[in-house]
C-alpha cells in the first residue's frame, strides 16, 4: 500500500494534471482533488490538514500561483511541489518569488515516478523542514548554512530554469554548479564552465557562440562555440558580471528563444542548454550603473543560490581542513596527519577572505612544510594570537568592512598593488600594511 493511502494524506492539484498524472497517482494510492478557487477558504475536509499541493506551473502559471497563495493563506504550512516546464514564465516576479518556497521542483518532462518519489519525501508533520538528515550533504560541510545550501541544490537541480549563484571568491560556486549538473537529468551530457572574466573581450562572442570561416581576420576555419558543443547539457558562466554588453544580448536570445547565431552567419541554430551563472559582484548595482542588462538579470535571477562565506560556516573550517589534509596525504604521503589545538583555534579565528580555496591552499602548503604529525599555526602562516571574531562589536564591523574593501579592490585591480593603491587613494606601502594587518596572503588570493 502506498504512503498516500496508508496515511490518509492526499494531493491537491493546482492547475491541470495530465490524465497519466492524475490516474497514476490514484493508482499509487493517493487520494487526489483539484483545487476549486471558489472554496479555498474552507478546510480541506477530504484530506485533513496534511494535504500536499502539486502546483502545475507548466501552463497558466500565474493563475496557479494565485490559487496557491490563497490556499496557503488559508492553510499555512501547506507543503507544495511545483511542476515546471519550458513555458513556465521564469522571469515573472510572482513566479520567482514562490519557487524557492516549494518543497521540491520537478521538471515537467520528468516521469510520474519523480512526482511520486517527491510526494513520499514530504514529511508527515508538515513543513517547514529544516534539513533532510538522511540525505548526505552535496558539498563537504555540516554547518546549518551548508546543509540548507545542499537542500536547495537538490531542489533546484532537476528544474530546467536558469539559476544565479552568488558568493565571495572561493566559496565553491563552480562546485555547486557541477553538483547541480550532476544531480540533473543532463548529467550524461557536457558541462561547460566558462570564466567570462578571463576571456579577451574580442573573443568572447566567438568562444561562446562560435564563428564561421572568414567571419573576421584570423578566422581561418569554422569554430563551434561552447553553447553549441554543450548541447543537451549545462553551461556555467562564471563572473557573468564581466560579460560585455554585446555578448549579453546574445545570451538573452539563448535564454528567450533557445537559439544562437555563429559570428558571420545569420542562421539561427537551436541549442538545448541549461544556463547557470555565477557572480561575486553585486549584479543589481551593475544593472543600476548600466553595465549589465536589466532584462538579462531578471532572466538569470529566477532561482538563486547564495554561497555562504567560510567564516559563516561554524564547524566547517576544521572539517574541511581535515578533508583537504587527508586528500593531500593520500596523494603525497606527508608526515602531518592532524592539526594542533593552537592551529585549530587560529583557523577558527581567521576570517578567510579567500574562503575555501584559501583554506585548501594553506593546508596543502602546511602539509608540505610541517615537521611534525601535528600542523601548527606557523605552518599555516596564521597568527596563533588572532583574537576571536566578535561579530557584533562596531570595531569588528569596521575591521571586516576594511578587509572586504581591500580584497574587492585587489581583485578589481587584478592584484596589482599600484593600481589598487591608486583606486583606494592610499600609498602602496599602506596597501602592503593593510594586507599584513588582515593576513591577506597575496599569492593565496591570486
Ligand atoms: N565544500 C567544499 N568541499 C570541498 N572542496 C571545496 C568546497 N567548496 C569549495 N571547494 C574547493 O575550493 C576551491 C574553490 O572552489 P570554486 O572554484 O568552486 O569557488 P568559486 O566560488 O567558484 O571561486 P571563484 O569566485 O574564484 O570563481 C575548489 O578547489 C573547490 O574544489
From TrEMBL:
Q: Is Transcription tagged as a keyword?
A: yes
Lineage per the UniProt record:
Bacteria, Pseudomonadati, Pseudomonadota, Gammaproteobacteria, Lysobacterales
Q: Which GO terms describe its biological process?
A: regulation of DNA-templated transcription
| Record keywords, A-Z | ATP-binding, DNA-binding, Nucleotide-binding, Transcription, Transcription regulation
> In this protein, which residues make up the domain named Sigma-54 factor interaction?
139-368
The name under which this protein is listed is Fis family transcriptional regulator
- Determine the domain of life of the protein's source: Bacteria
Q: Which PANTHER family match?
A: TRANSCRIPTIONAL REGULATOR-RELATED, TRANSCRIPTIONAL REGULATORY PROTEIN
A GO term for molecular function = sequence-specific DNA binding
Q: Which Pfam families match?
A: AAA_lid_14, HTH_8, Sigma54_activat
